[in-house]
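re: the backbone from monday

yeah here it is again, tokenized this time
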């Protein structure tokens, strides 16, 4: 079964790839108003996609359980780690993680999706909106609903 978010996620990943290809080292060093460099944001997105991959695999194997996350604490804890990573490595990890999470999401059963949607978890399957980076570089957001990161 193909979910509507699969095509949106794929388009967003392609948009992100196009953006990554055109960013200079100077672009990657730019700092956002909230203190993240563009390069660090790629590492940040990779982390959130890796979390999605781990959860989907676990839930497929063992059933959906609670997986609360304190986004503010996680983001602040990740910030120095993401900034320490080479921006080109961060881009590679981000794109690889996006591809893997897209594959996991597209392989998800309707039953698993229903379990996730009725669980108390804050989990978005439509991870297509990458506005944190694309808006700075005038790239359109690939989705019409929600934000990319759970």
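seq for it, each position gets an aa:
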């Amino acid at each position: 079964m193909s979910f509507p978010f699969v095509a949106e996620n794929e388009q967003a990943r392609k948009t992100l790839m196009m953006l990554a290809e055109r960013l200079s080292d100077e672009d990657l060093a730019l700092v956002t108003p909230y203190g993240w460099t563009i390069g660090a944001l790629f590492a940040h997105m990779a982390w959130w996609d890796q979390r999605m991959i781990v959860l989907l695999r676990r839930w497929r194997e063992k059933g959906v359980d609670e997986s609360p996350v304190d986004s503010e604490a996680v983001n602040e804890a990740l910030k120095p780690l993401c900034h320490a990573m080479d921006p080109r490595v961060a881009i590679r990890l981000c794109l690889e993680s996006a591809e893997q999470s897209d594959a996991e999401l597209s392989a998800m059963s309707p039953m698993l999706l229903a379990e996730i949607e009725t669980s108390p978890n804050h989990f978005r399957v439509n991870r297509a909106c990458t506005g944190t980076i694309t808006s700075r570089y005038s790239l359109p957001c690939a989705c019409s609903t929600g934000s990319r990161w759970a």
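Residues 16 and 134 are 7 Å apart (CA to CA). Confidence is low (pLDDT under 50) at residues 130-150.
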